[in-house]
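#structure-requests
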Amino acid sequence: MTAAANIVEVTGLSFAYDRRLILDGIDLAIPRGKVVAIMGLSGSGKTTLLRLIGGQIRPSAGSVRVDGEDVSRLDADALYRLRRRMGMLFQFGALFTDLSVFENVAFPLREHTDLPESMIRDLVLLKLDAVGLRGARDLMPSQVSGGMARRVALARAIALDPALIMYDEPFTGLDPISLAVISNLIRRLNDALGATSIVVTHDVQESLHMVDYIYFVSKGRIEAQGTPDEIRRTTLPFVHQFVHGEMDGPLPFHYPAAGYARDMGLSDRD
């Protein structure tokens, strides 16, 4: 696959907080126009990877290129321009609680453009209509449900028609109906906008129906990768346990402990 075919290219990427290694030599590519999931256990470095792609933090080693630009080498102005081509849906939505639904979606348009208010109004209503919430434009975040708040956050993430949209655990805390709605919107809006989406998630089954490709991260490395069908058929023990939600496997049910008899104060003869 040529460089032009990938909107994100990560090469030899390592990152550490002080001496604690989070990512260790990650290589991955995100093709244009696709929806790609990044999965793994909590603490495996998935959200850290999103932060590195967005330029919030800099790698300890290796590189992250977005649309051909080495993110860690950009100055503040260039990084700001690059972020105009990115959208981000944070975990739980992260709406501004003192702004209305309308004003939340209008925020990036006012921050990054000099468009007249009449055009901003039309664009905001268009984005809200795309997520089914044009009628909720005057409500405050406290007046909408969790699923609706997530849809408002999605409308805000696509306000600037970004080339790259990143989702950090978009399904967390949602009921089954809201989860299905958000999943459908991620896929449909990605295709309608001609964008590329990176979805960090624990929700295996929903993702297998929605994404084009999956990377599994474990202990700071890419443990496995493939299409949904390839992941379903995998025989790799860790991935099989994760996908099928098995209680025991490479990740054991029991935390390491001394022998049961010893902990209970019994001798081996008892």
